[in-house]
Design goal:
Blueprint (H helix, E strand, L loop, with lengths): L11 H16 L12 E6 L5 H12 L3 E5 L13 H8 L5 E6 L4 H8 L4 E6 L5 H15 L5 E6 L6 H10 L5 E6 L8 H9 L5 E4 L2 H4 L5 E4 L10 H7 L18 E3 L20 H19 L4
Parallel strand pairs: 1-2, 1-3, 3-4, 5-6, 5-8, 6-7, 8-9
Helix pairs in contact: 1-5, 1-10, 2-10, 3-4, 5-6, 5-10
The structure holds phosphoric acid mono(formamide)ester.
Length: 304
Amino acid sequence: MRSLIDIQQLSVEEIDELIAKANDIIAHPEAYREKCKYKKLATLFFEPSTRTRLSFEAAMYELGGQVLGFSEAQSSSAAKGESVSDTVRVVSGYADIIAMRHPKEGAPLVASMAATVPVINAGDGGHLHPTQTLTDLLTISREKGRLDNLTIGFCGDLKFGRTVHSLIAAMARYENVKFALISPAELKLPSYIKKEILQEKKLEYIQTTDLSSVMPQLDILYMTRVQRERFFNEEDYLRLKDSYILTPQKLENARSDLSILHPLPRVNEISTAIDSDPRACYFKQALYGKYIRMALIMKLLEVE
Ligand code: CP
């Protein structure tokens, strides 16, 4: 029995296999319609979500399985004080696999130690979001035809943006990937990630507050939302929330083959005028999330 808490638990070969499987599902969805017949997925979401929860649920339905769960802590017995460990021990008797989102960092890891079925981390606080990373990798692979030899710019809230943390860890394992870290000083990438991943592996990166200065070099621009829910005070959030708003004008010095990604939800950081630009990939990216989660559910349930 295997869980997925951190993207680094998957080898590069396993990620490549998941991407290949997702591509096959996209090409031949009918071949997968009964792969998880009689299997159940529990979605335990202690924090709001649209894409992750619904794409997990759609993924299980499209594999012929069934879904149960809750979408907010208040509608579960967590509201009465039940622990995460007790919750998943009980739910392990009701479902074959669990996807869990929780505001506390490490909660899905704790859950995986108490559960008797695989647990998937669907986002834990400002920490990690491995299935978003798989989604991002599938998107990059489909858009660029490769995951190596790329320059990727991360822009916005690099401090609290868990999708950024997981994607940097994943991209760092491919050859000749360069990073541009674009954020206000207060929202810089945590130093432990810089130290343990970028510096430890001697990867090329620059840190800047100025998006336009790095734009011409980028193959991928990964925009992020300023994570209001992680701020200690509203004043700081209001001051920083519109630090970067991507507009057509700001793309004037960008490459014609740039791919613009965003894990969504978007608030204000990408103008809707960009949505019709062929370089905008974020709605496709959200769709790909369903296919890569289908591939992951099959892998963790050991379905051939
Ligand atoms: N990208 C993402 O995690 O979106 P949701 O919060 O809507 O699940």
